[in-house]
Amino acid sequence: MDFQSDDALSRGPFLLIQWGSARIKVVPYTVTVNRFTGRKFLVVLAAWLVLSLAFGGAPIAAAPPPPRFVTVPNSIRVLAVWHNGNIVGQLQPSETQQAPAGDARLISKTASAASVATNGTLHYSIAITNATPITQTFQVTDSLPAGLSYITNTVTGGFVYSSAINSLITTTRELNAFYGNVITTTGAAPYIEIFGKPNVENICQDHPFPDCDDNAITVALPEPFRYFGVEYSTITLDSNGFVMPGSPLSHELDTDSQNQLLPDPSAPNNVIAPFWDELDLKGTNAADTGGGDWLYAAVHDGGTNADYLVVEWHNAQKEGDAGTSYRFQVWVQFQAEHITFAYDTPAFTGDTSSATVGFENSDGTLGASYLYNGTGLVPGAGTELGLNAVFDTAQLGFDARAQHNLRGCSSITNTANISGASGASDIAAASVHIFGPCDFLPIINR
Question: Which of 175, 276, 287, 396 gives a 20 to 30 Å CA spacing to 349?
Fold first, then answer.
């Protein structure tokens, strides 16, 4: 559309419309029936503004966009309620999930297909992961069972085939130690207060706890999440500012109020701590001297279409100090290994010198502390932190052929063994179904 200037706009009669700080000068007689210029657009706009003001005021503003983060209805179920390390509420043992002892496997193995015909070929992939806190030298041996033949010149990643023992072997491989850290992250969910929102569980008030001090609950989630490479469908929430994937062992929470320098092999383990300290929240007893709320909810992120479990400590109080107030969250993304911490503005009113911010694995051998008893960094107001776990890995592989004399309706399994200089060891196996004619003995009725 042409918006060229014309001296006629500055001469002759005109209409001046003022709307707030906006002033519009309109020259109606400059519009002609055979020209649709910028001047005609101004007249149409002016007429619309006049009618809007005369019949109902200013134009209706567009509706604001919906919020990005929304608490949503969920099927999170409480499996167990704990106080001072003991079960005091409902427990459904078939659904609780103890934390696995190994976390990330030292070795894993897969085959390129679940089934193969005789004379068919398979590719085997082997991954080595140094899930230990020290630099390791590893050796791998993969012995081929009867029925599998190595295909020449197909090894990758440092494997060597030994015909003398019909096995794939490696020279010594060095892998760096596990590295863990808590880092300032961008793009993570910010502190979005869930207190007072719909579909939110107020743990201290809803269970109820007469005094909400040294308590925990284990919940079953509508979707699983991953932590240190392990998939979990349950998680334990502790009133003292941390969560634990899975369910605690008996008496593992006896010392849940005593923060640790993570990682630490002593109980509790598998700790994820946005702010682990001796907290005392408000219980249902009117005489309870604790303060603050402890909540959880399922939250949908409309920006990334991701779903989270959000646990919030809202104005949590430090044990014996009524003047303190702590506001922080942990976000656990479903169907992913993505866990972050979020802190309000302000995040902490009161002492932070006896707290831990960090994480560890299920046996307390791997992890990191961002803050411990005043050493490290106190999370800043309005910041987000992310868990960063880095494993050094190596990939190996080879091809093999299923021999022609294999019987159908059977399977063949071969196993890889790994041994480390420090005594670390593990095994991994891959099984493949052989399809073809089944051998059987006929049943003869006499």
Answer: 287
